[in-house]
UniProtKB/TrEMBL annotation:
PROSITE patterns: PROKAR_LIPOPROTEIN, TAT. It holds the Pfam family DUF3048_C. Keywords: Signal. Residues 1-30 form the signal peptide. The keyword Lyase does not apply. SUPFAM superfamilies: YerB-like. This is DUF3048 domain-containing protein. Residues 73-200, 228-336 form the DUF3048 domain. Residues 28-57 are annotated as: Disordered. InterPro entries: DUF3048_C, DUF3048_N, TAT_signal, YerB-like_sf.
Amino acid sequence: MNHRRRRLLAVTALTAAALLLAACAPTSTASPSATPRVTRSAEPTPSPTPTPTPTRVVQTAPLRGTVVQDAAALGPALSAKIDNHPDARPQWGLERTDIVFEELVEGGITRYVAVWHSDVPAQIGPIRSIRPMDPDIIAPFGGIVAYSGGQGRFVRMMKATDVHNAIHGGADDRFMYRTTKRTAPHNVIVEARKLRARYATLAPPAVQFLFAPRGHAPIFGEDAAGMDVRFARDSARSWRWDAGSAAYLRSQNGRADVDASGKRLRATNVVVLRVAIDWSYGIVPRTVMVGGSDAWISTGGRVIHGRWSKQSQTSPITLTNSASGEIRLAPGNTWVELVPTSGSISVVG
């Protein structure tokens, strides 16, 4: 009896000790509502999408055949009647033209129809009055024509085309002024860039001449040093090939022809057209531009004898060889000499 009692007391004592130890154990300080930490692998940071490089559209200047910046292939052509009287020389802007036409006017002297598109200077001039052949020359280019006026019948002929007429003394007079560096009437200057910007939404010109591919001059024709032409007794012009600059250098009446900056006038292509003259306007000669005749095309130090033709007022001039294939020019600027049948044309060299 005493033995069983001692075992019971021992068990009771051990149980009490276990409870006392449990009560004295330290408790956790974590809040029962704390969210357990979850370990996650790092998510990759997405790489930014690269901005695509704009693709430059290769543009070709329609009047030069050269590769140009996009803006230079847009916008309208600006044509102008440029004075070539000795008192008007040297002129402003001729060295930056795309195409120049030289035509016979009264008294055996010449004037220019100059066309700018891919490289328009700030000022051009001096400008003079319109003539009866000018609508046929300018209409294919569209855009704008600047001139100082003219006989009413000639002005009406020019206004009958789709070309915007900017006439000195008219609505666009704010783009023109008289320079003190020349005497009247050889002193009307056009602020070309401002005038063209005013009508920037007009369509660019159509291609006028075909150009050789890959920027090379055609390989056909005969080697020649250049061309000599004469419009009248006192209107002699010459062009000489300069291989160093790959251009033809211009002279008038035996003297180097320069612009207002002193630079020699030059052309990549010189196109000489034999033309008839209509005298139905009295003393004012009208170069007949719709039709065709002989042509001499100088480019790359060679001369090709062919034919020119123009089907209507708005159509461009077509140049063909003896096999009726169209002649291509070298990419660059072009001067077109409209030599009357009474004048002379000579291939040099």
